[in-house]
Amino acid sequence: MTLALETTTGLTVRLRLADDWFEVCGLDRLIPGRGVAALLPDGRQAAVFTDRAGRLYAVDNRDPFTGAAVLSRGLTGTHRGRPFVASPLLKQRFDLETGRCLDDDAVRVTTYEVKAA
């Protein structure tokens, strides 16, 4: 989803959890390239991001290599046209659309459907 900045006031970021949408925060709270950690109803955490084009992404906040909930603090970028977040601890990169680790094909993080409404 791509949104112009002037249209973001009043919109909220929502994640699909099972068969329902969970409200995370106001869209105006997201800064391109920086993540926001969201506590989910079941106690897990999601890392939510937006890019400069206004696309939204959400992945599990837990770094599978260390177990620490830190992906929301990672650096974002692109590799071969794929958006990623790099863990701030060991620097493994995770594709923000698929959750696949770009540095170890055997590892993934959960991704969430996300929208602004």
Characterization of this structure:
This protein is mainly β and 117 residues long. 0% of the residues lie in helices and 38% in strands. The protein has no helices and nine strands. The chain has a three-stranded antiparallel beta sheet, with no helix packed on it. Strands 3-4-5 form a three-stranded antiparallel beta sheet, with no helix packed on it. It has a three-stranded antiparallel beta sheet with strand order 6-7-8, with no helix packed on it. Strand 1 and strand 2 form a beta hairpin. The mean pLDDT is 93.
Distinctive features:
117 residues, mainly beta, three-stranded antiparallel sheet, globular, iron-sulfur, Nitrite reductase small subunit NirD, oxidoreductase, iron
Write the SSE topology:
Blueprint: E1 12-17, E2 20-26, E3 36-39, E4 45-50, E5 56-60, E6 75-79, E7 82-86, E8 93-95, E9 114-116
Antiparallel strand pairs: 1-2, 1-9, 3-4, 4-5, 6-7, 7-8
Pfam families: Rieske_2
InterPro entries: NirD, Rieske-like_NirD, Rieske_2Fe-2S, Rieske_2Fe-2S_sf
Protein name: Nitrite reductase small subunit NirD
